[in-house]
Write a structure and sequence with these properties.
The complex is a heterodimer. By secondary structure, chain A is an alpha/beta fold. In chain A, 28% of the residues lie in helices and 22% in strands. Chain B has two domains: 139 residues, Rossmann fold; 149 residues, Aspartate/ornithine carbamoyltransferase (Rossmann fold), CATH 3.40.50.1370. Classes of the chains: A alpha/beta, B alpha/beta.
């Protein structure tokens, strides 16, 4: 990503399929972005600008222009583990993935449990010409599960939610107080649902594959038991609860029931839990080690159904880059996590191509859904909205191993996957932050 | 297997039935040799065997060391730290370093399941898995099958009870694969706290008591119960384990008369196996140890037989 590619130049997306599920918009037309704002949407809206010196006309034929994405869950590793990723490389990856907003988890070194760390993250992000960064503060000091953080201070500094992600808040009393206290500041509490007593030593899903491989299993019930408890606590405290990266059919059922009862609970899913099963671990591929672990076909089925019917509010990448030291080792010793910001949209478009998830649901879960959870004005094609848009080619076939990725580490089992659909251009904060549209010819 | 590719033995699944039988036949030859005053064969003269043990082991390491030396190989024992990451080196670099020393065979013992698999994928030398975590211990299964065949002949239709901590046992996993391949019928017995999450995944029926597995068994294999699992959330006490899941002479009577009693060792006498059973004429436990050297000679000879010249 080069700095200041073409900010503030008028952009004309000519004959593009403009889709914004929140507006009920799905039309092939022109979209004009001027001064960082959506100025015109409509057939022939760009006519007057064609040939104008101040306008860059981009051919939209066969392409889609959609609200840019919002990631609720990324690990950009700064401060403290910049050898894995830093805010600049992470935001560059996010821009290439179509994101206008990225929420970063607090398991940095030191943990983001104070205003100082939140401010440092935001200061770093301001130095980068990229998507907007939103820190998530820790729930407890040092993510140790005991003392609440100064959530008022964190909120004031710019945190949008609290989470001890990577660690579950095991103590029900601490969780209860966290839900109550965070509600003062309008922040959701995001839980990493894992009963650590049930997952001691676990490195993959507990099932037939773990039995054969001799790997210690992480049973579904370890996730479900926390989500069930938390739903009850959220109901009792009348607070907002968000379950991170749900992975089991039980979690889907619990969330569906809770929503049907009108509770303010939401949940997210990762692309890998929608696409892979524990069978990927056969061969002890450490790139398939992730928390929560890859589950079974019936879980994937339940998650895809939940994405299609709206039970799942958001798709979150859980982008978690790791260096070779943490991955080129024994499966037991490998760090869990895989990178995902640049691949998420293309990978999940597969579900749309296969007719399993409606495009509008996918776009909602990538943008409007997550934006609402953190109280952000959703990216939109509405006239007058700040331009946070993403131009995609839904048919372009590519493979992550054959392009230059922006993230520092390539820990993903999708490296050789042929992906159909790619982000070509991203606008965040009204500016172009990623641009892979071929220049020249009629597009110059 | 592509020509010239190393002949790893990471899992029993790496062997066809014919290859397994060929290994057992060749072990019979080495078994006789080991009973001669001069026990040396020239098969691996000039070849190098690295015994790379990331996990403490006296019995298995000694068995492999003797096997290599009786085949005239140069044998080097390396005791490594418990995992690559504790020394801040990737496993890939560890393997690359070892490869550079041009060994012909690397015998690997590791506490992590899959470690042998991971190393074999990157190793030019043939990798022989001498036990990886809870996953597999293929030479143990081969020496067990060898011992059974010596006493029983063909294993076709034979009933083998494998009793104890199935979930944590690499011996159980390798034996289930090999014995089924050789036509035997395996029946597991274990307390439910020591079952694999999906027991059917190991390809044998399982009971929560010894009795159903023992009934009519030709072979009773008792697994070692790790001391640290007693008095935990898995098993309340050695006393209760011995009472319900220990092999006593009375329980052994459920098996076919003269049934073979086996144990991979070292035994916890009085816990999983009573003194009387361990000392009974039916016990083939020392036969297993003897077979171990012969089987490992056969395995090393096979591993070194592939062309390991630099490509």
């Amino acid at each position: 990503m080069s700095a200041a590619v073409s900010d503030r130049v008028t952009l004309v997306f000519r004959g593009v399929r403009a889709i914004d599920p929140a507006l009920g918009l799905d039309a092939t037309c022109d979209v004009v972005v001027e001064d960082g704002v959506v100025q015109a949407v409509g057939a022939g809206a760009g006519d007057a600008l064609v040939g104008s010196e101040r306008a860059r006309v981009i051919d939209g034929t066969g392409r889609w222009l959609v609200p840019a994405f919002v990631d609720l869950h990324a690990h950009l590793r700064e401060p403290g583990q910049e050898y894995k990723e830093d805010i600049a490389s992470g935001l560059a990856a996010a821009a290439a993935g179509g994101y206008a907003h990225v929420c970063v988890m607090p398991n940095t070194r030191p943990v983001n449990d104070t205003r100082a760390v939140t401010e440092l993250m935001l200061a770093r992000a301001r130095e980068v010409h990229g998507p907007t960064l939103h820190p998530i503060g820790a729930i407890t000091v040092g993510q140790k599960g005991a003392q609440l953080t100064e959530m008022g201070d964190l909120r004031e500094a710019g945190a949008v939610a609290v989470s001890d992600d990577g660690v579950c808040v095991m103590n029900a009393q601490v969780m209860r107080r966290a839900l109550e206290y965070a509600s003062h500041f309008g922040m959701p509490v995001i839980q990493h649902a894992e009963d650590h007593d049930l997952t001691s030593g676990a490195v993959m899903h507990e099932g037939a594959v773990s039995a054969r491989l001799g790997l210690r299993g992480w049973p579904r019930v370890a996730e479900d038991i926390i989500i069930a408890r938390d739903i009850l606590l959220a109901e009792y405290t009348k607070s907002r609860y968000h379950a991170a990266h749900i992975s089991t059919l039980g979690a889907v059922r619990l969330m569906r029931e809770a929503k049907a009862r009108g509770l303010e609970v939401t949940c997210e899913v990762t692309p890998h839990h929608l696409l892979l099963t524990d069978a990927s671990v056969i061969g002890y591929d450490t790139y398939c080690k992730v928390n929560p672990p890859l589950r079974e076909e019936q879980d994937v089925e339940a998650l895809v159904t939940a994405l299609a019917d709206g039970t799942l509010d958001a798709i979150a990448t859980d982008h978690a880059p790791h260096s070779p030291l943490e991955k080129e080792c024994e499966f037991d010793a490998a760090a869990p996590g895989l990178m995902g910001l640049e691949l998420c949209f293309g990978l999940l478009l597969e579900l749309v191509h296969a007719g399993r998830v409606p495009l509008t649901r996918l776009l909602h879960a990538l943008s409007t859904g997550p934006a609402r959870i953190i109280g952000l004005a959703p990216p939109s094609l509405r006239l007058g909205a700040r331009a946070e848009l993403c131009l995609v080619d839904p048919e372009l076939a590519w493979s992550p191993g054959q392009v230059t990725l922006h993230t520092k580490h390539k820990n993903t089992p999708f490296m050789d996957r042929v992906i159909r659909g790619k982000v070509l251009l991203t606008l965040a904060r009204g500016e172009v932050v990623f641009d892979a549209v071929a220049r020249g010819g009629s597009e110059s | 297997m592509t020509p010239g590719a190393p002949k790893h033995l990471v899992s029993i699944a790496d062997l066809s039935q014919a290859e397994a039988l060929a290994l057992l036949d060749s072990a019979a030859h080495f078994f006789e040799l080991s009973r001669q005053p001069v026990k040396k064969a020239p098969d691996l003269r000039g070849r190098t065997v690295l015994n790379l043990f990331f996990e403490a082991s006296t019995r298995t390491r000694t068995s492999f060391e003797l096997a290599g030396k009786r085949l005239s190989a140069d044998v080097v024992n390396i005791s490594a730290q418990s995992s690559s990451t504790t020394k801040g080196e990737t496993l890939r670099d560890t393997v690359a370093t070892l490869n550079a020393m041009q060994p012909d065979v690397v015998v690997l013992r590791h506490g992590a399941s899959g470690a042998a698999h991971t190393i074999a994928r990157r190793s030019r030398a043939a990798v022989v898995n001498a036990g990886d975590g809870m996953h597999e211990h293929p030479t143990q299964a081969l020496l067990d099958a060898f011992t059974m065949r010596r006493h029983l002949g063909s294993l076709s239709g034979r009933r083998v009870a494998i009793c104890g901590d199935i979930q944590h046992s690499r011996v159980a996993r390798s034996n289930a694969l090999l014995l089924s391949m050789l036509g035997a019928r395996v029946h597991f017995a274990a307390p439910r706290t020591m079952w694999p999450a999906v027991p059917e995944a190991l390809g044998a029926p399982i009971s929560d008591r010894l009795e159903p597995a023992l009934e009519g068994a030709d072979v009773v294999m008792m697994l070692r119960i790790q001391q640290e699992r007693l008095g935990s959330a898995l098993i309340p006490s050695a006393r209760e384990y011995a009472k319900i899941w220990g092999l006593s002479l009375a329980r052994l009577e459920l098996a076919r008369p003269g049934a073979l009693v086996m144990h991979p060792g070292p035994m916890n006498r009085g816990v999983e196996i009573s003194d009387e059973v361990a000392e009974s004429p039916q016990a083939a436990i020392l036969d297993q140890v003897e077979a171990g050297v012969a089987v490992r000679m056969a395995v090393l000879a096979r591993a070194a037989s592939a062309d390991t010249a630099l490509s």
